[in-house]
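Tokens as discussed.
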């Protein structure tokens, strides 16, 4: 099934979106909600000229007549009873989220937002860089995105790539105790139409997923061997604003991230995956390093591990 590349316009900016042609409108609204911070129940979607409403259409992207290159507009549905309540909650609980602006002339001071270590840290971190706040419900949605992408492309996502049969992987990634890694980051980069730069504190390197796609925006995550956290910038212009999405043609954030990676590496702010101890929550077995954990998973089909 081919993908559709869309442009999303809202009050906070313009975003690229890549979604499957068979993506339900309901799932599209969930994705738009993450990018715009508009509650799903309050989103009004329009496209075409003159703009026509599609937010109440049942069915898929294809059913609505959307195709690559189309622009969709997200607005707040003023008829929604939840609009005022949601607005008050957002203003009181989160910082204003700036998506795309100049970072200033100097190398910026990039900051790390610590998210819960609950096996869904990758997805919580992605939710933060997309929406500017910690949302622990991001995991379920993103796990489903990944499972769908893997199931729909069994050629690229073969057993040799996944380390397990395609069907088994799809079931595994839906499990809230399963960890995300490079495969999952790559799929999310493609789905959101955004480059994801992952800073590895053990090697001091930066991996840029989606670098070959020429995406206009980039987000940053930091990885210490077992845990992901999102990176952000406090606005140098307006107190109380944060920025998590940056233009890919501005390398100052990459320079700042490299400085952070070098500092973390020199101070050993990482977990050696060949030495850390894990406990299997299914049988209680204790293992040293990811190799033993992978072997244990192959032999027993147990996938629920915690650092011990």
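Sequence:
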């Amino acid at each position: 099934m081919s993908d559709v590349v869309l442009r999303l316009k809202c009050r906070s900016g313009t975003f690229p979106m890549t979604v499957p042609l068979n993506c339900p409108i309901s799932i599209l609204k969930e994705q738009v909600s993450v990018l715009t911070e508009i509650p799903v129940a309050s989103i009004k979607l329009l496209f075409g000229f003159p703009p026509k409403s599609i937010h109440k259409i049942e069915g898929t992207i294809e059913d609505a007549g959307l195709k690559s290159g189309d622009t969709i507009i997200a607005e707040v549905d003023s008829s929604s009873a939840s609009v005022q309540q949601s607005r008050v909650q957002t203003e009181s609980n989160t910082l204003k989220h700036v998506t795309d602006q100049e970072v200033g002339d100097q190398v910026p001071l990039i900051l790390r937002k610590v998210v819960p270590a609950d096996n869904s840290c990758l997805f919580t971190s992605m939710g933060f860089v997309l929406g500017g706040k910690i949302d622990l419900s991001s995991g379920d949605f993103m796990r489903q995105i990944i499972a769908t992408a893997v199931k729909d492309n069994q050629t690229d996502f073969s057993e040799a790539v996944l380390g397990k049969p395609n069907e088994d992987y799809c079931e595994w990634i839906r499990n809230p105790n399963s960890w995300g890694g490079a495969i999952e980051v790559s799929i999310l980069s493609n789905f959101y139409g955004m480059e994801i730069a992952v800073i590895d504190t053990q090697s001091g390197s930066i991996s840029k997923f989606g670098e070959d796609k020429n995406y206009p925006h980039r987000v940053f995550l930091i990885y210490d061997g077992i845990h992901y956290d999102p990176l952000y910038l406090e606005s140098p212009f307006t107190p109380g604003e944060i920025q998590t999405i940056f233009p890919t043609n501005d390398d100052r954030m990459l320079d700042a991230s490299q400085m952070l990676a070098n500092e973390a590496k020199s101070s050993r702010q990482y977990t050696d995956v060949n030495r850390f101890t894990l406990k299997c929550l299914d049988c209680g077995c204790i293992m040293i390093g990811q190799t033993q954990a992978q072997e244990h998973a192959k032999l027993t089909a147990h996938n629920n591990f915690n650092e011990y």
